[in-house]
Structures are given as structure tokens and as C-alpha cells.
Amino acid sequence: MTSHWLAVLGCWVVLLALEPVTLLAAGDALKLTSAKVRVGIRSSTFVNVNRNDAEASLKTFVSTLAKRRGYRVEIEIEYFEDSVAFVAAMTNRMIHLATVDSWEYVDMNLARFMEPSFVLTQSGKTWQRYLLLTRTDSGLKSLADLRGKSVGIIRASNAKMAMPWIESKLMECQFGKPDRFFGNIEMVDKPTLTVLPVFFGKKQACVVNQDGFEVMKELNPNVGRQLVPMLASDELTENIVLLNAHDWTPPQLKNDVMEAIEELHQDPAGQQLLHMFKCDKAIPFQAQQLDTMRKLRAATARWHTQSNP
Fold first, then answer.
1. Which domains does the chain have, with CATH numbers?
2. What is the pLDDT of residue 10?
């Protein structure tokens, strides 16, 4: 399963937190406002995250927030394996809340149906940067030198843009697709599995998120001395939380959901869920956060067109 969302699952978590608690006293239950919320999740959310563990944590979060929000919510969750069906569900107004990778979102036409409302932070940042690393003593100085070489590329719930980014750099240089340019590609889900094979000389290069590389350097300073970035990406915001623009019953439910998402990091159970997906908190979306992703997507589309006239 792929991402954003990352990142991203935070909103699903919040909505599930509104699920009715069966242990409510009968008098309290009568005071709850009934509502239905439909949640759409791209399967990519669960890259290197155990879905059963996530759902177990959600149950704890449910019990702490259900009463607080005053709703008896019927929640329908649908997982989408492909973006076409995902977009169709949102444009047909079948989804109240969705988590989506920004790489996909910038190519979707959802403005009339879904509002980008939150992004998820990692290490206090709304973005990730990716590095193409080689050993300082490898003699490899440019991307061209990596033709036919063995590389590792990270793909995790909080780091999904490594492959799209390196593919864009290869196309920019007219080197073709990664699987044709490199001799061998291994997709891995942890920075250690990405970086250490290069450090020990088993692979010639790797693409890893900068945060992951910084952690590796803290654990072993020799990693920072022996490995050097050949290329670095722009700052890329990967995960977006979308909310239906109009179809909420009662209307106040949308505002309550937004408040719950913003407060996720303040609740111990919410913190546990965020930690599971390596996120800190959800903060309000700002349009400029997607500028670099739109630029990368447009450039990639242009290079695809040029290579396939």
C-alpha cells in the first residue's frame, strides 16, 4: 500500500474517534446527535504500518473522544486501491473526509467537491526533502555515473516521494525510466535498510528522506562522514486531509471534525496514533504548501510528453 497518506490517516483517526461508545449510560446516549460520516482512504496510507495495530489504537481513541463531541456517528470506511475510483467517489459526493497523497491530489480536479483542510507534520515540518547519496570514496560524481548501478530507494508511510523524485531527475537528464537506467533497484521501508547497504559498499547509491538520513548520522557519525548527497529535492509536502465542502448533516459536524483533527496531538491516544504514522500533528492547509509538488508534477508530465511524442 502506498501515502500523504500519511501521513493522512490522521483524519480517519479523528472521525473514528467520533464513533459511538457502547458503554454510554442510557440517558447520555439519548442526548447524542446522530450523524453519518463516510471516509475514503487510499490504501497507500498503510505503507509499513500494520492495519490491525492501527485499528486497535483507534478503539482507545474512540472511547476518549466520543462523549466529548456529543455525536452518535455511523462511520462508513472505504479503501481505494486506485485513484480513478477514489476521485469518482469524491466527485459524486460520496465521501465526507479523505486522506490523499499530494502527488496524486495536484492532478485531481476536486475544487468544487473537497477542500484541502490539513497537512500532517513530521519532525515539526510539513515537508520532506530527499537525498541521493553515494560514498565519498566511490568516484561517482554525477547522475550519469550511476547508470547500471545498484540503488536502494525508500518508500514508507512518511516518505513516499523518493521514486517519483528520482524518476523526474532521470527524465530531466533524458536518461529514461529508473528500471532501465539503474542496474538494480530495491524498494525498502526503513532508512537503515536504505542507507547502510551504501555505507557498507553493497550498493552504490540510495535515495532516502533527509530526516531519516539525519537520524542515521546521529546513531553513527561515520555515516555522515562517509556518505554525501549527490542531489537533493525541493521541500515536498506529501499528505493532505480533504473535507467535503458541503454535505454535512448536521452542518456543525464539519466544524467539530475540524476541531477534533487539530486537537489530535493533545490527546494521549491521539499522540499514540500520530506516532504510529511518524507524524506530530495536523495543521491547517495553506495553498503554497503544494507549490513545489505542483512544479514537480508539471515537469514530470512535460518530460513524459517529450519522451513519448
1. 6-124+236-300 (3.40.190.10), 130-232 (3.40.190.10)
2. 41
Please give the Cα distance from 301 to 309 (Å, whole number): 12
Quickly count: other Cβ atoms within 10 Å of residue 81's Cβ: 12
pLDDT for residue 274: 80
284-289 contacts at long range (C-beta below 8 A, 24 or more positions apart): 284/117, 284/118, 285/116, 285/117, 285/118, 285/119, 285/240, 285/241, 287/116, 289/119, 289/126, 289/127, 289/237
pLDDT of residue 8: 36
> Which string of DSSP letters, residue by residue, matches 233-268?
PPPB--EEEEEESS--SSTHHHHHHHHHHHTGGGSH
Q: Which residue has the cell 483533527?
A: 261
211: CB partners within 8 A, 6+ apart: 122, 123, 128, 159
Question: Cell triple for residue 272?
Answer: 499514540
Q: What sections of the chain are H helices per DSSP?
A: 6-16, 26-31, 51-69, 83-91, 102-105, 162-172, 178-181, 191-199, 210-219, 221-226, 252-262, 268-276, 291-307
Q: How many CB atoms lie within 10 A of CB 284?
A: 13
Tell me phi and psi for residue 187, to 5 degrees: -90, 125
Cell for 218? Answer: 546521529
> Which pTM was predicted?
0.83
3-class DSSP state for residue 81?
Answer: coil
pLDDT averages per 10-residue partition of the chain, 309 residues = 38 42 43 81 69 61 62 78 91 90 91 92 91 97 97 90 95 93 96 97 97 95 97 94 90 86 83 78 94 94 77
Cα-to-chain-centroid distance, residue 53:
18
Question: How many Cα atoms within 13 Å fall on the side-chain side of residue 29?
Answer: 8
